[in-house]
Specification:
binds flavin-adenine dinucleotide; alpha/beta; 15 strands
């Protein structure tokens, strides 16, 4: 098959069965975090990506969770079930392993359990949760539970396999910002994955896809369905333009791709990276690479903010403010400004800092600074990849 034909063969609806070829811890021992460098082989797929794109990954659920649900249902796993928008029936085990999400119960399952509970105590508890005055209690209750917990807590409301399946949503792929440049790694996609593990309601919980990549995929063998999600986020077409990159935590991923690419193509433009994480000693992701790129000039400047190395928190936006004059000089000279990482707090705070720097240094009123930022966005000089 020609490369062009292959290029269109794999997508979200027809993911490529890739193989993970490397899975390495990026945090040093003693870190509170688990961030992994995952390398996915895409040779022979015809998949193409550019710096700034993301990789979609279809995970499977933990086998132990699937077994526990089967046990709670009194099922073998061989039962045939029907899924929405899927013509042929599949086995219950297949549905629970790779088709359906086991987290995120809603009021509807509580209603179903309430209708089926045969134990008076369980029925009363469920009725209490569904009472009109219990809205907040119910929300907090659901927030702390996955479907497994509900089946375990209300065993008298024995559900049939299909009844449970009808309550579960589809297991969706997760996106990861690509941390490599195709100019350097055309047959690989590198990812920077923060593994999600936490404790709720006395139970150890995991993020489905991050633990799929960290724990369940065997390097070199497990087929890992992936697709490239093309993004507007990307380097300026003119490589002589300066770039400012703000990427704390896993937000660093696309900027490793950017600098790798600018180094490989000997781009003339300057680049300035703001990186932050908890502790310098354990969480300075890709430290050696940044040092090398600073040395060879591929990276002009790097400012770090290690939030937990001192009593008061220091974040990337604090470093922006400390370097406001220089930052404004770069922006005024036409630099592109990029942000990647946490959308809930970080990206908002960085946006405020950007407005403040432009207003303060440019001598602009808040409205004029806001217009300036709007114009940057319109010119694609302010781009965000936040999640
Ligand atoms: C464009 C884009 C790019 C992205 N790039 C990256 C990237 O480069 N690296 C990366 O690691 N991620 C990235 N993400 C996020 C990624 O897609 C996943 O959302 C993330 O990895 C979690 O997936 P999961 O399946 O492991 O967790 P899920 O199974 O989806 O579980 C996550 C959920 O668990 C709950 N949760 C998590 N922690 C806690 C806690 N401490 N207490 C209580 N509840 C909690 C929350 O409800 C959370 O929504 C990106 C997302 C997008 C949209
Ligand atoms: N197991 C753990 O202990 C643990 C810890 C963190 C994250 N995680 C997981 O990791 C995932 C994301 O991790 P990540 O590496 O991308 O990022 P992250 O760990 O959430 O954050 C990276 C850095 O950004 C800092 N930060 C926090 N709030 C900020 C703000 N408003 N503005 C600027 N910087 C801010 C953090 O400081 P502070 O955290 O010191 O405030 C940290 O130094 C989350 O999904 C979470 O589940 C796990």
């Amino acid at each position: 098959m020609s490369e062009t034909a292959l290029a269109s063969a794999y997508n979200k609806d027809n993911p490529f069965p890739a193989v993970v070829v490397e899975n390495r811890m990026l945090n040093a021992q003693g870190s509170a975090k688990e961030t992994r460098h995952i390398v996915v082989g895409i040779a022979g797929s015809g998949l193409h990506y550019k710096s700034g794109d993301s990789l979609g990954v279809f995970p499977t659920n933990r086998q132990a969770d699937v077994e526990e649900i089967l046990g709670l249902l009194g099922a073998t796993g061989d039962e045939s079930v029907t899924l929405a928008r899927t013509p042929a029936p599949v086995s219950l085990r297949e549905a629970l392993t790779s088709r359906l999400a086991l987290a995120g119960p809603t009021r509807r399952i509580v209603e179903t359990l309430a209708a089926k509970a045969t134990d008076a105590g369980e029925a009363a508890r469920l009725a209490g949760l569904l009472a009109p005055e219990s809205k907040e209690v119910l929300a907090a209750f659901l927030d702390e539970r996955e479907f497994i917990d509900l089946l375990a807590e209300f065993p008298s409301a024995r559900l049939q396999a299909q009844e449970l399946v009808d309550h579960l949503r589809r297991l969706m792929p997760r996106l990861y910002s690509i941390a490599s440049s195709p100019k350097v790694h055309p047959h690989e996609v590198h990812l920077t994955v923060a593994v999600v593990r936490y404790l709720t309601n006395g139970r150890e919980r995991v993020g489905v896809c991050t633990t799929f990549l960290a724990d369940r995929v065997s390097v070199g063998s497990t087929p890992t369905p992936v697709f490239v999600s093309h993004s507007h986020f990307g380097l300026p077409e003119d490589s002589a333009r300066d770039v400012i990159m703000v990427g704390p935590g896993t937000g660093i991923a696309p900027f490793r791709a950017f600098v790798q690419e600018r180094a490989a193509t000997a781009a003339a433009g300057r680049s300035w990276l703001f990186f932050g994480d908890q502790k310098r000693a354990t969480d300075f992701l890709y430290h050696e690479e940044w040092i090398q790129w600073l040395k060879d000039g591929s990276l002009t400047r790097m400012d770090t903010a290690f939030s937990r190395d001192q009593l008061n928190k220091i974040y990337v936006q604090d470093r922006m403010r400390e370097n406001a004059a220089e930052l404004w000089a770069w922006i005024k000279a036409g630099a592109y400004f990029y942000v990647c990482g946490d959308a809930k707090r970080m990206a908002k705070d960085v946006d405020v800092a950007l407005h403040d720097v432009i207003a303060g240094q440019g001598g602009l009123a808040p409205e004029a600074a806001a217009d300036y930022v709007k114009a940057m966005k319109k010119e694609k000089r302010y781009q965000r990849d936040v999640y």
